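Researcher: Go.
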Amino acid sequence: MELLKRRIIEDGRVLSDQVLSVNTFLNHGVDPVLIAEMGREFAGRFRDAGVTRVLTIESSGIAIAYATAAELGVPLVYARRRKALMNEGEYYSERVPSFTKGIVTDIVISKEVLKADDRILFIDDFIANGDAARGALRIVERSGATMVGAGIAIEKAFQTGGSFLREQGIPVLSLARIASLEGGQVRFAEE
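Model: Structure:
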């Protein structure tokens, strides 16, 4: 997606060979025009997949997932990041490491909002090692639902997360695939 790539080049900040900050337009400050366009892209790609719910993880993926769910006309569900204080009988829970935060948290989804016959489209702002996506996939599988696709705003193609989802047979649309952040420069993967 050229608009997203342009914003990454113009407004993104390479913090290290592993970390790209997009705080000013994607996950702290949010550009609503960009987010709406991303939602249209994801909805267009997965419209025929029979999606019944869009799923993301608190909090950076919520805006993109909302735009996608609105385009598809389906509910949005987001996994909350919480300590395991809730009753496991009412929630699905998974431990998920955060690459950028350097911590491990529990993500939880109420059993009321995820049903066995759901067809889930997973949406997130970044995929690096894929730990969040793995956790979400485990919850979807435990619920009996099916993950029918994943829409990722920015994939760090030099890490394994996107490849993991594809190896599971999950169709993935990444709007910007980054091959490298070495030397403080963003290099996009060939599409």
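Model: The beta strands are 13-14, 20-21, 53-57, 76-82, 91-98, 103-110, 119-127, 146-156, 172-180, 187-188.
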